[in-house]
Amino acid sequence: MTALANLDYIPYLDAEGQMPDQFDGKVGVYAIFDQEKDLQFIGYSRDVGFSLKQHLVRRPQSCYWTKVETIDRPSRTLLEEMRAAWIAEKGAIPIGNAAEEAVWNQAIDAKLTMTSREWATYEASDDPGKVKTLKKVARRVEEEVLAKLDARGIKMPIRFDPKLKEKGLLNL
Fold first, then answer.
1. Which of 105, 130, 150 is the last residue of a domain?
2. How many domains does the chain have?
3. Segment 22-66, tens digit of pLDDT
4. Boundary-marking domain end, from 76, 105, 134
5. 22, 2, 3, 1: which is closest to 11 by C-alpha?
6. β pairing state of 39-45 and 10-11
7. Positions of E strands within the chain
8. 37-64 burial: b if 16+ Cβ within 10 Å, else e
9. CB 32 within 8 A of CB 63
C-alpha cells in the first residue's frame, strides 16, 4: 500500500474539459482535493472512474485534483484498510467523510430545493401528478447542476438516471 503523500496529484480535468479514463472500471482507493490541494474526501470503489465522475457532478468546486491507488482484486477489507490508513496519515477526517458525507455520497435531492408553490402543487396532486412535479423540479435542478459544470469547464457528456428523476433525485 502506497502512502497518500507518495502518490502524484492527477488533475481532475484535462485541457479539453474531459476526465482521464485511466481509472474507468478499476478497483481502488482515491482521494479528492480542491483547487488549493486541500483534501476533501477519501473513498474507495469498484469503478474509481465512475465514482470520481459522480463526485465531480455533486461537488464541482471541490474536485480539482485526485490521487488514486488501484488494486487487482476487489477486497472490501483491503479497501477499507487503505482508506483508514490515508485518513490516519492525514491526521484528520476530511470534510467529505464527516459533516458533508451525504453531499459527497448520496444522489442530489432536488426535493430540498422545492419552492413553496412547487410543494403546494406536489401536496395537492395525485400520484401521477406528484411524479410529474418531482420530474419538473429534478429537471430544473439538473439545469442548475449542468450550468455549474459548464462554468467549471467540464465538457464531457453528463446523463442523469431518468427513473430517479421521478423520485426527485439526480444520479448518474
1. 105
2. 2
3. 999 999 999 999 999 999 999 999 999 999 999 999 999 999 999
4. 105
5. 22
6. unpaired
7. 10-11, 27-33, 39-45, 65-71, 108-109, 169-170
8. eebbbbbbbeebbebbbbbbbbbbebbb
9. yes
Q: Are 12 and 30 in contact (CB under 8 A)?
A: no
Using one digit for the tens of pLDDT, what is the confidence trace for 90-112?
999 999 999 999 999 999 999 99
pTM, two decimals, is 0.91
Give 28: exposed, middle or buried? Use CB within 10 Å, 0-12, 13-18, 19+: buried
Residue-range definition of the domain harbouring residue 29: 4-105
What is the CB neighbour count within 10 angstroms for residue 16?
A: 8
Q: Which of 47, 69, 79, 94 is nearest to 2 (CA)?
A: 69
Please tell me the distance from the alpha carbon of residue 112 to that of residue 58, in angstroms, as a whole number.
Answer: 14
